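If you are new to this repository, start here. Below is one unmodified record pulled from the training split, so you can see the exact layout before writing a loader.
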Amino acid sequence: MTNSASADQAEQVAGVEVGEARITIPGMSEEGENLATAHEETEHTHGGLGESTVKAKSGGSRADRTTSLDVADFAVPTGREEEWRFSPLKKLGRVLSDAATQTPVRLKVRNLAEGVTQGELAQAQSPRGTVFSAADRAAVVGYSQTEKADHIKVAADTELTEPVFLDITGEAAGQRANGHLVLEAGTHSKVVFVMEHRGSADANLNVEVIARDGSDVTVVSLQRWDEDAIHVGQQDAEVGRDAKYKHISVTLGGEVVRLNSNVRYAAEGGEAAMYGLYFADAGQHLEHRSFVDHNSPRNSSNVLYKGALQGQDARTVWVGDVLIRKAAEGTDSYEKNQNLILTDGARADSIPNLEIETGLIEGAGHASSTGRFDENHLFYLMARGIPEKEARQLVVRGFLNEIVQAIGVESIEDSVQQDLENELKIAGF
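And here is the target side for that same chain:
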């Protein structure tokens, strides 16, 4: 079921009016008995610059998607599939083939404090595969072609005051690299993992996050690849009872990056927050897909992705799925995507999807907007003596700063701010 906002709830974001609502479930009784059993074909667009009207049919419910660890269950995509129609398959062909690693990415782990261990897991060795289940061909190929997964484990009741840094470096442009990483946080532990991707490769890299009961886990995934890198990956997390999970994805580098970030819950009381920041230049394709599976009662989620685009054929895609299953009574969920287009020739596609199978929830909603600068903002700043170039910089910084601040690691926030400054210089700001 798609949740739509009413006109009187419109807000002004980046110069475009968009609807936004916490919860409206027409036709559903308190018990959810009037929930439609089939999804109708609907037109869905948020009217943003560079967007096209999308017709989607419900055979596309996330509850019906194939998940498997067997490559045979996923055919090579043609581009006609819903989950692949935005992706540049010609460029992704090398990472979709069922091929072994040619040159592996190099992993360096820093800040392995007391209570943190590093090891390896075979494909059938627990806890590998207990949370991760591939949702497309890229993910299953990456999993099956990785013989040994890296495993970072934080012991129960361990609270780390400094992040664990994982430097992931591609060492050969155009060379295939498969990888799988398992991050495990024990009960009542607290940890921040920072994954930083640099260099170049045709990288098919998956991440599996296990947040045990009562844990507090933050995962920061930085994509700072060279301009010729290809990166696909699925990053899955399961949130335990009364656990907190925060995932932040920052994508600035790479020729093509396509990441799926997914969350589900092991028990009640879990909290999940998913943030994303991306800045696409000419010729880049940056694609982010998020899925929150509310599969148990009384859990919450908040999803916020923001992006900026500049240059000819700069392309971004965000697809956000939230599924509130019938068993997930008491759920509170919200997702939002905003895009700021800085120059002609750029395109942003933004598709939020919300499915609700019970009326007994605390709240649910989504919003999306895409547009250029709000000239009123520029006029306000320039009227106070700020030159136009600096005023435009301030608008972009202010737009993206909400995501930067969510990182919570000062050194990383500072470096991301510097990266954004460099991006603005490319556009002549």
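Two things worth knowing about this chain: The two ends are 42 Å apart (CA to CA). The chain has one domain: 67-373.
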